[in-house]
Predict the 3D structure of the following.
Amino acid sequence: MSVELTVEKIARAARAASRKMAGSGSAAKNQVLRTLADAIQARTAYIQAENQKDISYARKKGLSSAMIDRLTVTDATIRSMADGLMEVVQLEDPVGAVTRGWLRPNGLQVSRVRIPLGVIGIIYESRPNVTVDAAGLCIKAGNAVILRGGSEAYHSNQALAGIITGALEAAGLPGEAVQMLPIRDRSAVKALLQQEEFVDLIIPRGGEGLIRFVVQNSMIPVLKHYKGVCHVYVDESADLAMAQEISFNAKVQRPGVCNAMETLLVHRSVAPDFLPSMAKRFIKAGVEIRGCEKTCRILADAIPAEEEDWSTEYLDLILSIKVVEDMQAAISHITLYGSSHTDAIVTSDYDRAGRFVRQVDSSVVLVNASTRFNDGGQLGLGAEIGISTSKLHAFGPMGVEELTTTKFVVQGNGQIRT
Amino acid sequence: MSVELTVEKIARAARAASRKMAGSGSAAKNQVLRTLADAIQARTAYIQAENQKDISYARKKGLSSAMIDRLTVTDATIRSMADGLMEVVQLEDPVGAVTRGWLRPNGLQVSRVRIPLGVIGIIYESRPNVTVDAAGLCIKAGNAVILRGGSEAYHSNQALAGIITGALEAAGLPGEAVQMLPIRDRSAVKALLQQEEFVDLIIPRGGEGLIRFVVQNSMIPVLKHYKGVCHVYVDESADLAMAQEISFNAKVQRPGVCNAMETLLVHRSVAPDFLPSMAKRFIKAGVEIRGCEKTCRILADAIPAEEEDWSTEYLDLILSIKVVEDMQAAISHITLYGSSHTDAIVTSDYDRAGRFVRQVDSSVVLVNASTRFNDGGQLGLGAEIGISTSKLHAFGPMGVEELTTTKFVVQGNGQIRT
């Protein structure tokens, strides 16, 4: 069978399964998640044996140790997947909620009722834990999901998918509600992106190249972010000790993720006070500093930043710093170079806090807190399926509710239009 | 300048204008709408003179009288545009609403705040009144909009766009918040669909061909419906008099629109009672009936339906009728042939009403009411910008609120992640 036909068959089966998932109650869905949490722990040896095949292949192909690290399913990875599933069990089931309802003058009772999205395609790179995390959230929201993990994690993902199918069937739900694309090359992704008739949403997770490929080729709506060029602006009225803690946390606590700070903006009146001790702490932590002209005058160690630094997501221990005239200049910089992802102000000024929040057009805007809080778990949504910087449907972290939509239910007693 | 550069320049200006629109309050936005309502009435003669150019050109090109009818701006069209704007003035401004908020254990105050989407591109066909209706809703929601009307309405649309710009500027808002693409051929549409950096949403309104072209070429999220193949299912327990009124209204009241019924499904046990008098009324109103085998046995006048009838949106006085075994067969038919747009059941059975509502996967599902109620105004959303059958962001009629999104605002006092 051609790649296109294979993928269409999978998508069609997913659509059929999605109808059964939509009709299943919380009890059955939670049972799947619990069974799955038990099963992946019980079958650790099997999963790790399959994972070993991928690791050997990756070594042969000469993949970087960072890549192999991400690929490896340790005992801790298994435990964390199981714990994650049990957290999803605890989340409220969003399906069936009446989000709003009203009575029309002609007696029609109108309700907006939350329903699953239907079929979701998730395209991701090396980490096999995404297979279980994403499947768990999609199941909880009553969806079917088609997974396409990185080709380097092929055996690990097939093993996990098989266990997920078993857990679904044990609860009387269709195994086709979670399917892994069995084709290793990109043609399968391209074919999936054409299944508009059967797939409601595509979520790509990975590098900017993968995401651009998906957006360019998809007929199906895509929720994504290309990158996170996140800023902290230290205002002239900032508590400088607080500003230092927030800036350090935003850059150093986990530099390789999308909500880490990439550019620090500092009001010119506090720059001479703030930057030297801040930079000392950064340098001690191994952070390379690339500064604007004014920054370089204050920090002898800083490398002069180039134009492209301001729009670069380093995902590394590198930080660009710019001294700005005032908050308006900081906002203009964020508007020009930012990625609508996460931006923070440190200030003690009531009015400026409000203006920053209103004027910065990002999915998460923070006052006096680290950018690292742009995360579904941290913000209280429960587990997250990703972060969207497209404004449509979901802007910011996407939890289980963002995997649903609403339909209109209209109850009448014979109304017609005149 | 090339088409691509012209369109990019317009999109960039729209983005800049959108920031000013987002920061403007309800008072200024409502002032624009009121000024505009007055201005189009005051300048009726000018608008109609420009409209006459389009009509002459359309006649020369030999366009159908239906097309010319849609294109013509009568005094009533002008009044209706002005009235529509005044209705939008009355709508609640969705921007700034806190849709939800909560406190995290670490003291972070998280809010989801409603904000404008940003820049919206609307691509539509001949009716010039869409220019004013769509601009009005986008302005109310604090967005900038790029309009691309049908080439046959070129002069009418340019005239209306000029008046809108004047109304914006009179209220101190940027004229670039509403721009009409000045290029007549489809290359301008294609170029617009590539402006992902500056445009947040595309709404195409028109025939299926236009909409498929937009979806295939767009890098930007699209809200749309391809077609409305809407059903009424008459259950065995239906009040047959009510069923007749609803079915007649759904088919005949305005057959050329997307929420008109295209297929009538009738439970076999009531078909012999229901169909003859129903058909008589349809035939008297000029409706052509295409029936399944069982229908044709009951109705001598019915033409045998072919397979493709079941998925056809006639938009005309044509109706397909199918006799079904039971409600489950009706739902299966809707699932297979429907378009997720609007479907209704007529029943007096409590349990079946509930099951139909849960199992039919359409944007609007009705019990004992006409499909013609799938309309923003009729359902109480106020004016609508269109109807979406994509599940993402908006499923069903889209009002002013659907032209907004939410961002996360996080207020802290020094929180960092550990």
